[in-house]
Design a protein that fits this description.
This protein is of the alpha/beta class. The protein is built from 25 helices and 13 strands. A five-stranded mixed β-sheet has the order 10-9-13-11-12, sandwiched between helices. Strands 2-1-3-4 form a four-stranded mixed β-sheet, with helices on one face.
């Protein structure tokens, strides 16, 4: 390929890390960008030129990819920077006051001051949160959660500490009857022996005895639905992929949970990483995949450390690699791919583009991933929570599994409680538990406060009023009630919450995270935010009735004609606040 490059050369440090990718293909573009960012803290024109030479990627396309992700910078910034979350859970737990203090002490957010405003960091149970990063020969990252201005100022000056070896915490740790969370906070997540002593790899052994079709039959009979929000039957997806004659088949574990208020997958990866690896191996066996990719959001340094360890230990003991567990002919391995700050990459086809070295933009469907997915081959995509249900099904049996939950929504479900709640965290309950029972489990709102609303499903979800707490938490009951469980977000707002500011943050989130590929979403999210600013600010030039009508028209267009779920759901939460919570009347008053 005849590349036309600018006359700018990389530094010696940049050249060294990029040369490690010599002889590799375009699918290494994102890892190469990470390598440069980890080494020097930003991506210079010289580094981008050299990446293009080594990987044979057109410069315009490489620039498009590098500029797509929020964790990368194409303008010079210090080696040390702190990303301070300003998203939903942090917003209602003091993020504004934290940022105000940092502005006074360090200056306005930006590269010069050493701190940046950030979307959700996925540690909503410990809000407010920040992520400290320092580039170098060995890059260092540290999640600060919960944090305060003094800590952020100190870490901005001194740099982050190495990833700690502490255990993940869960309010139900050690409770009887847990299945998905039974090891979290109890078992050493770095020890394969501890994992096996608590039943680890028994499910894979069962899978190898059942054979691929037997595993698929068990998962299908268990009625396991996807836990990422779409609720597609997992067995059907695996079966459709397994039947494809084209080879190879791929498995992608979607661990890019970037929905504000979602952190259950992080907890599973940090607290039970071997379960994630075993579950992926079973899925790969069932669907005929020889390789799996775990696409991990870039803001999870501790999960990255623990998953790398789990993969290495599994390879050592023949739980990954060639002829796994002595099963002749079954070979499967896993590669971690780090995201770099893009909510849209949680969409299943956007993940494919990101892994392949393109902008993380969704693809039109059909063809569906089971026919043509990663690298154009049949691909299974499941999120972390969906996958870790599979060992439960294989060890307890599909009939026992279906007795958990309801007839249509079977099994246990993880919910992420955050916001104004006494004991935030991830909770495991059977499908069918009511919202009120779940809130009671988490201690309800803090003493002396009253519940104002609950946001179900995150920024793409909908609100529930205090008089609707008898809602059974199932896929079908949520749909009937005009809302959604989504990925399991339960974000609680008490009577101190500023609903207007909260809705503005939702509107800003979708504007920022739109990939810009389709006009309805690219323009609609901007118009939605503009109208919300006028409504919330009650500006004289605006008439509330006109803006409400504009919001409804724009929202409907996005829902009907956007390419992917981001644009199709960008209006959901705002619409439910207007109609279900009566914010339309509040804004008009």
């Amino acid at each position: 390929m005849d590349l036309k490059l600018l006359d700018v050369e990389p530094s010696e440090a940049e050249r060294v890390v990029v040369d490690l990718f010599t002889g590799m293909g375009r699918d290494q573009l994102l890892p190469a960008l990470h390598a440069v960012n980890d080494r020097v803290g930003w991506i210079s024109q010289g580094a981008l030129n050299h990446i293009c030479r080594v990987l044979h990627v057109p410069p315009a396309e490489a620039y498009g990819v590098a500029s797509f992700y929020s964790l990368f910078s194409l303008t010079e910034r210090p080696a040390k920077v702190v990303h301070v979350c300003v998203d939903l859970a942090c917003q209602v737990n003091g993020a504004k006051a934290l940022c105000d203090r940092l502005t006074v002490e360090l200056g306005p957010a930006g590269a010069k001051s050493g701190w940046l405003r950030s979307p959700c960091l996925g540690v909503c149970e410990k809000a407010p949160a920040a992520l400290a990063f320092e580039a170098g020969e060995v890059a260092k990252e540290q999640l600060l959660a919960p944090t305060h201005a003094g800590e952020v100022i100190a870490v901005a000056a001194a740099g982050p500490s190495p990833v700690d070896g502490g255990r993940a915490e869960v309010p139900q740790a050690g409770a009887a009857g847990l299945r998905l969370l039974k090891r979290v906070g109890v078992v050493d997540p770095e020890s394969l022996d501890d994992y096996r002593a608590t039943g680890g790899y028994a499910a894979l052994r069962t899978a190898l005895l059942l054979g691929p079709s037997g595993v698929i039959r068990e998962v299908t009979d268990a009625k396991l639905m996807g836990r990422g929000g779409a609720a597609f039957p997992t067995g059907r997806k695996w079966d459709a992929t397994a039947r494809q004659p084209v080879r190879p088949h791929y498995l992608v574990c979607n661990a890019d949970e970037s929905e504000p208020g979602t952190f259950k997958d992080r907890l599973l990866m940090e607290g039970d990483p071997f379960a994630v690896i075993e579950s992926m191996t079973i899925a790969g066996f069932a669907a005929g995949c020889s390789r799996g990719y775990l696409y991990l959001r870039g803001e999870y340094p501790r999960a990255l450390h623990l998953l790398r360890n789990a993969i290495a230990r599994a390879r050592e003991r023949n739980f990954l690699g060639e002829n796994i567990m002595g099963h002749e002919g079954f070979s499967f391995d896993i590669e971690i791919r780090r995201g770099a700050g893009a909510y849209i990459c949680g969409e299943e086809t956007a993940i494919f583009n990101s892994i392949e070295g393109f902008r993380g933009e969704p693809r039109s469907k059909p063809p569906f991933p089971v026919e043509s997915g990663l690298f154009g081959k049949p691909t299974v995509v499941n999120n972390v929570e969906t996958l870790v249900n599979v060992p439960v099904i294989l060890t307890e049996g599909c009939e026992a599994y279906t007795r958990i939950g309801t007839e249509a929504s079977t099994g246990p479900k993880l919910f992420c409680l955050s916001g104004n709640v006494s004991r935030p965290g991830v909770y495991e309950v059977p499908f069918g538990t009511t919202l009120g029972e779940l809130l009671d489990l988490a201690g309800g709102v803090p003493p002396g406060r009253e519940l104002r609303a609950v946001l179900l499903g995150g920024a793409a979800g909908g609100f529930v009023r205090p008089d609707e707490l008898d809602l059974p938490l199932t896929m079908e009951d949520a749909r009937a009630a005009g809302t959604t469980l989504g990925s399991g977000v339960v974000l609680v707002l008490d009577d101190t919450a500023d609903l207007g500011s909260f809705l503005l943050r939702i509107a800003a989130f979708f504007r920022d995270e739109s990939c810009g590929q389709c006009v309805p979403c690219r323009i609609g999210t901007v118009r939605q935010e503009e109208a919300m600013h006028r409504l919330v600010g009650k500006r004289p030039l605006s008439t509330s009735a006109a803006d409400l009508q504009l919001l409804r028209e724009v929202g409907q267009v996005m829902r009907d004609s956007s390419i992917c779920g981001l644009g199709q759901t960008a209006w959901n939460a705002i619409e439910s606040a207007l109609d279900r919570l009566g914010y339309a009347q509040e804004a008009a008053s």
